[in-house]
Amino acid sequence: MFDPSWLWAAFTIVAAAAQTVRNATQRELTARLGTVGATHVRFLFGFPFALIFLIAVMIALRQSPPLPPLMFWGCVIDGALAQVAATALMLAAMNDRSFVVVYAYIKTEPVQVALFGLVFLGDAVTPIMAAAILIATTGVVTMALKPGTSADLNSTLLGLGAGAMFALSAVGFRGAILSLGLPSYVMAATFTVVVGLMLQSVLLSLYLWLRNPEVLVSIVRAWRPSLFAGFMGALASQFWFLAFALATAASVRTLALVEVLFAQAISRFVFQQPTTAREAVGVVLIVIGVALLLWAG
Residue ranges per domain, the chain? Predict the structure, then answer.
């Protein structure tokens, strides 16, 4: 018989896979829309699909959307703004000469999520979970930091700042879901996705309208490929939030590091790029960390 306590892990794996596809689609749109425009697609075109998901949940559960408490708005605004800020820091990092170093620091996110989750939500971190988080994170950093790369203060701040914003976003969204206090975690997660994407769509649309309205026109013209990117983004968010409803943000974001394994597998088997010894060590550490996390859960 299936153990429902493992649902959060299944949700996380699906979310990571959907996010990998979304990232690949966004990369193709970057040449046409620019980095900011391609990033906005995930919010703007994801929002309608999130609404469809919510309507489907309402019909299936025969429930109306909840009336959110004040705490919900504080948490969901924190999650939405922190995610946008994290994206902005990543965009700045792309222009940095030490991007691989920045990426390594960004992937310290699970460690920061564990800290913020403990402080703001009281999410407990057992010694085994802490060890799993540190081992898996070390694996990602090992893969990212190639021989010859050097760090400076700017790359360190960009990476740690982006990681912190992603961490605060995860904790904020989990806090929003929990604050609803609904008997159905599916409704709580789906409703939070809709509100979060709505806020982000409005915020980035306003920013582009004021700073670069031509990008908005280009986004509308590229609506066909953007629809698929939006759908995959909404699907990924749906499953991330379902996972956040059932497990601590630290557990979810640590298991999410399997996305790195997906990317490594594509590099090895699709593009026939050999795996270096350093990358192999990183993969082993990630696998050990994830296995330990699942065992602890």
Answer: 4-111+149-247
